[in-house]
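User: Okay, second chain of the day. Same drill as before: sequence in, structure tokens out.
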Amino acid sequence: MLIHQLFPQPIYFSKLERALTEKELKIINKYKKKTKKNVGNSRTTDNYVLEHKPLQNLKKYLNKMVIDYFNKVVCTSNSIIPYITQSWINYTEENQFHHRHSHANSYVSGVFYINADKEVDKISFYKTNYPTIELHKTKYNIFNSNSWWYPMKTGDIILFPSTLIHGVDKKKGTNTRISLSFNVFIKGKIGDNSNLTELVLE
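Assistant: Same drill. Structure tokens below.
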């Protein structure tokens, strides 16, 4: 007997192979003083945090992970360049949460965990096509689950399709969970001229 996985969703995991510098930590702490209320937690008022000079090296590293994702997951022959669009920092305190959502106007989304404890911090993903017949499960697996979660720790990086619904359940633990989220789009030529699907994105 053999069971295949058909049309799975890619969840790409990596990590920052260094500690954040003093300059990077300084601006991250500075951002915390300029936040606005989100649904369940708070986030920076600045939605382009990676454009600032102190975080340029971090942005370069995250860009490398994005390119690796496209090379290993997307595998396209189209002449495109993926690039980070918006980026912002989320702050989640004890008993706060991050509502279920997906990211519009984005191809791939990512999260870099600035401060997270794998014992209490996780990210959850949810199916959009709920089954029309609900049966009691004796054991959960990737085929019969409507949601799935992964523990996350400081330094972790995760990339996934922007259409994938995700969120954070009510936070346990007294640490402040700090995560930098970002969206990725593409520029270049996609589709095919002869099939009338060509689109040039600049």
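Helices lie at 22-31, 56-74.

User: Thanks, on to the next one.
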